[in-house]
Specification:
three-stranded antiparallel β-sheet; Rhomboid-like fold; mainly alpha
């Protein structure tokens, strides 16, 4: 299932969401222009390597949980991440306010890095991508706007799984769509336990970022006066 857009317009321009998209795009463009060998060195230097974090090899590795958030492994990886950030980031930014949104984004990215390092501390393959931080944004969106409708591209079963043109669009509640995504990550993560090292998907980074976002959104209290269509949970009320 691929979300196309949400039916939850914002009242203000999501400047920081656009800025994050621009920075991620600029970093990958720089990485791409370095060529294969230069890009590999770039990823080795600024990507997060769990083994180096776990073993404290050198101080420089401590900045990689931040730098790795703005790096990607391919154009498709970048486009998919930025697409999800574009759809769901603007409303979360408006709900939290810009300074808190940036802090929230970075914290969930760190939660993703911590989860992946904890689950596989001996892995020497660099981890890159904004997926963990964006997973935190998805969790925040699910808690803040669970009933918002999201126009979603869905395969017509069973043939839609084989033929890309056999798809239809439906409006799904954001809570249902995002929880479906999280369950897929959880099942994939459990299924990947015990697998050999490789350059696959860091599912536990997605899981860690999502859990961090789900928990932290309670601390980053929404500004109810600027959030359209948002009725906060009872514990936020006075």
């Amino acid at each position: 299932m691929l979300p196309l857009r949400d039916l939850n317009p914002t009242r203000s321009t999501p400047v920081l969401t656009y800025l994050l998209i621009a920075v991620n795009t600029a970093v990958y463009t720089h990485q791409f222009m370095l060529g294969p060998e230069g890009a590999e060195l770039f990823v080795r230097r600024y990507g997060l390597i769990p083994a180096m974090i776990a073993e404290h090899h050198h101080f420089g590795s401590l900045i990689t949980p931040f730098t790795s958030m703005f790096m990607h492994g391919s154009w498709l990886h970048l486009i998919m991440n930025m697409w999800f950030l574009h759809i769901f980031g603007d409303n979360v930014e408006e709900a939290l306010g810009k300074p808190r949104f940036v802090l929230f984004y970075l914290c969930t990215g760190l939660g993703a890095a911590a989860a992946q390092t904890f689950i596989d501390p001996s892995n020497t393959v660099p981890m890159v991508g904004a997926s963990g931080a964006i997973a935190g944004v998805l969790a925040a969106y699910m808690r803040l706007f669970p009933h918002t409708r999201v126009v979603t591209l869905i395969p017509q079963l069973p043939w839609g799984l084989i033929f890309p043109f056999l798809y239809e669009t439906r409006q799904l509640p954001a809570g249902l769509l995002i929880m479906f995504w999280f369950v897929l990550q959880l099942l994939s993560g459990v299924g990947s336990l015990g697998a050999s090292q490789g350059g696959g998907v860091a599912f536990f980074a997605h899981i860690g970022g999502f859990v961090a976002g789900f928990l932290l959104i309670g601390l980053f209290r929404p500004r109810r006066n600027i959030t359209r269509g948002f009725r906060p949970p009872e514990r936020y009320s006075h």
